[in-house]
Amino acid sequence: MTRTPAATATAPGAVHPATPLDPDAAISVRGLVKRYGDSTAVAGLDLDIRRGEIFALLGPNGAGKTTTVEVLEGYRQRDGGDVRVLGVDPATGGRRWKADIGIVLQSGGGDSQLTCLELLRAQASYYADPRDPAEVLELVGLTEKAGARGRTLSGGQRRRLDVALGIVGRPRLLFLDEPTTGFDPEARRQFWSLIRSLRDLGTTMLLTTHYLDEAEELADRVGVIARGRLVEVAVPAELGGRGQAPAVVSWTEDGVRRTAETVGPTAFVRELATRFPGEVPDLAVARPTLEDVYLRMIGEPA
Amino acid sequence: MTATTERSLPSVGSVWRTRGGVELKEFFRQRESVVFTLAFPVILLVVFGAVLDYDIGGGVTFTQYFMAGIVAAGILGASLQNMAISIATERSDGTLKHLSGTPMPKSAYFVGKVVQVLAVTVLIVVILLAVGRLAYGVVLPSGSDWITFVWVTALGSSACTLLGIAVSSLAKNGRSASAMVTPIALVLQFISGVFFQFSQVPTWMQTIAALFPLKWMAQGLRSVFLPDALAAAEPAGSWELGRVALVLGIWCIVGLALCVKTFRWQDRG
Lengths: 302, 269
Ligand SMILES: Nc1ncnc2c1ncn2[C@@H]1O[C@H](COP(=O)(O)OP(=O)(O)O)[C@@H](O)[C@H]1O
Ligand SMILES: [Mg+2]
Fold this sequence. Notes:
The structure holds two protein chains of two kinds. Chain A is of the alpha/beta class. Helix content of chain A is 27%, strand content 25%. Among the domains of chain A are: 51-70 and 94-239, P-loop containing nucleotide triphosphate hydrolases (Rossmann fold), CATH 3.40.50.300; 246-286. Chain B has helices at 12-28, 31-51, 62-92, 95-100, 106-136, 145-168, 174-191, 203-209, 213-225, 241-262. In chain B, helix 2 runs parallel beside helix 5 (106-136), helix 3 (62-92) packs antiparallel against helix 7 (174-191) and helix 6 runs parallel beside helix 10 (241-262). The interface between A and B is medium-sized, with 33 and 32 residues. Chain A: It is found in: Cell membrane.
């Protein structure tokens, strides 16, 4: 199964480029292109994210996740394509539009002399209908750090403070750029449950990650991005056509190691068994793991 | 669109107030900035007042002369150096980027900085005057000298604040801003008549100093702190208050133009 992405090819599950922008989607993107000098970081991306959905943009470092997200947040100017975020072109989004989105940057928010609670109060004062800062601290599990300054927090606590700052304005849409990179497994698990409680509050989320398990765990749909293109959009269980992917049967015959790819491994093995008097030597049946599927998706095309 | 509730954003004035409060906390809670900007000029005044207590003529002590210079240097620190370093820091650590992604009106950031500069400037001037008066018997300005004092301070501080904001864009981060701006400020202080009498500075250095605001701030403040008889020792033989206003006003306009042209809310991209 070799993938030969042509410039016009549409990734499985992705929006077809010819479809018009969806004005009701939380995010609608057609043909997004972003270049830095001679290199193209995003090369024609089409995407619709529904309201209420958690969408994960999954891809390796340098795939174009941050570039894409920061175009959607209004931080970077695009070189081509059309984009609507909550019905507005981010390049022209004003105060009212910014009040409806929450942003957690990949690099976090910076160093401050203010305490967590003071930072949240200041941030809340920019919005029309903010959440109660104390409640937000509770939600992200930083209540006992309310009076602590940012620099005294651990990495995981810092990131939860970033999220608190992102949601205190009661955004309808929240961007999270690699929210858990650098976390230990325990901190990551805690963070995941925070994201789930935000989902229960009805916030639409676009998060980026290079962790497969994170995308699988959190997202309603996953878009796999590699070299600035979406190579697939699917619900986690169907990512990479898992289930339908051929199994690999391997065995030894006449002293030679042999393998065969088949969609019906049971029938294949039954047939194989008739060729040997007893056990099939070194018989093994392997299904590609999600990891294998993912690595193949993001690998250089053959 | 789901349920578009017409919530009105907070008034610009209320966000200005928030930012003013934030900037005051940011300054006064940071030990480096308090020591560097506030305490350093006071220490210099104490040391110079104790060591260089000679008569510069007409019964005026050097401390009285130094008062004008150290107040000018204090204003420079509270505005130009403070703005250049703090904004470069906030640009490189992502604070500015974060703010520009919120519905905070952009003006509020600058209003907060102005509140910070104003508070620090007033505080430093009050402390310097108090220490000078109480410890060294410096004669405080009287009558219309206060008016000159206020406009020179306000105009000089405005010019240096704008220049500081502009200069912040040249630096990669707070540390490099500090490395760039501190030596420049020090050299300017030496050639602008802060640490020595301006009349003792070689003419060619006086000419260079005259291109920058500090010399004019110090000169304007000398007209406040020194008896008019000493105006004869100035390069032009007078206080040149009209020219002080003109040069500082031009620097305000140049600084503002540079700010508008160079200010960035993020590092790159
Ligand atoms: N500001 C920039 N200037 C130049 N090149 C950039 C810039 N930002 C990103 N790139 C390049 O664009 C590509 C995509 O980067 P990025 O969007 O940060 O990927 P990701 O977030 O998936 O790691 C990379 O090759 C990166 O080096
Ligand atoms: Mg990134």
